[in-house]
Amino acid sequence: MKFKNAFLSSRHLWSSPFVRWQGSLADVSSLDLAVAVTRDALAKGHFDPVRVSQIVLGTTIPQPQSFYGAPWIAARLGMTGISGPHIAQACATSVVCLVAAAQAVEVDGNTTSLVVVADRTSNGPLLVYPRSQSAGGAPATEHWVLDSFAADPWTGEAMVQTAEAVARDGTMSRSALDDLTLLRYAQYQRALADDRAFQRRWMQPVVIAKGKLKLIVEADEGVHPYTAEGLAALKPVLPDGVTTYGSQTHPADGAAGTIICNETKAREMARGDGVVRLLAAGFARAEKGRMPKAATLAAQRALASAGVTIEEVKVATTHNPFAVNDLWFAQQTGYSLERMNPYGCSLIFGHPQGPTGLRSIVELVHALREVGGGIGLFTGCAAGDTGAAFVLRVE
């Protein structure tokens, strides 16, 4: 899936801090979070919402009033004359939203799309499904978050089982997973250096009124301090497995966003800071019960669509709910583990599903800017043994 005319301004990419579930954002609707973060990010970027042609909203976990999600958020942001699609595809949601916005530019070059992606894994809804034929009409229930995490309804397996399967396929040791986790944690520490100088370029604090007070979250919350001794002391999640709670991510809450338009508008918005050319996207599905492999397959498809080789990729970022993901990617592509995720990744800072990919893309763009621009790749896996990837060039 290739793009020719879709761009974004390097000044108009943002993400909120990610907060470990049941933390400071546990009782904040992801739609309210999206409005607060997007409003402040647009104001910081001196962008007039009246210029937006459509909104593309991505969420995966139902929230109160989410039936009206996209038009309601647009109206609350002062964009009362627009609407747009509301997209949900598990952890691939960010990439699918970017594709929808980029395709709109390809069809009509004057379209300017605001992409807003948010999720709250905390306090996920308990859904009740009527069953008139059951004894006494007793309903069926589903805990949307916990039941979805517990098992893929097609395979009957939890996601950690897919990680173990790929670890066996790749002959990955427990020590290799722990070593990679420590590397990713060290890379995340780089993002915190000099009073979080890297993160402050794009991280939009959460500021939400709560009665007479304000809830303010300025930095990631709930990141574990990883050590070799601490990781070694953890037991595997599954008997005889190699994945521990240290070498897999944690659920979180957060929001992210950007604006996609044509090159002329993007350069005007960037005000000399450079633009990002969207080159191609790729989607894939791995064999049954092998979810971590899908990220590599999607990346290969995106690179092929863009006409780019892995050797041309200057920086790569990944959504890696398991350390297994990155090890498989490196085995299959030869790409250096050290060149991936130079400022951390979802393995360390957490995973609020929908916005996870876009935060990693925001970090990808800023990491490329630090090295003078060039081609970047984002890829990640998603529920149902699927994967989604994006190739871009920072100019």
Overall description:
- By secondary structure, the protein is α+β, with helices and mostly antiparallel strands.
- The protein has a domain at 159-196 and 275-394: Thiolase/Chalcone synthase (Peroxisomal Thiolase, Chain A, domain 1).
- The protein contains 12 helices and 15 strands.
- The strands form 4 sheets. Strands 2, 3, 4, 5, 6 and 11 form a 6-stranded mixed beta sheet that branches. The protein has a 5-stranded mixed beta sheet with strand order 1-12-15-14-13, with helices on both faces.
- A hairpin with a 3-residue loop joins strand 14 and strand 15 (386-394).
- Helix 1 crosses helix 2 and helix 6 crosses helix 10.
- The protein is globular, with a radius of gyration of 20 Å.
- The two termini are 21 Å apart.
Map the helices and strands.
Blueprint: E1 7-9, E2 13-15, E3 19-20, H1 30-44, E4 54-58, H2 69-76, E5 86-87, H3 93-107, E6 113-120, E7 126-129, E8 140-143, H4 144-150, H5 159-169, H6 174-200, E9 206-210, E10 213-217, H7 228-233, E11 252-260, H8 263-270, E12 275-285, H9 291-306, E13 313-319, H10 323-333, H11 346-349, H12 356-370, E14 374-382, E15 386-394
Helix pairs in contact: 1-2, 6-10, 9-10
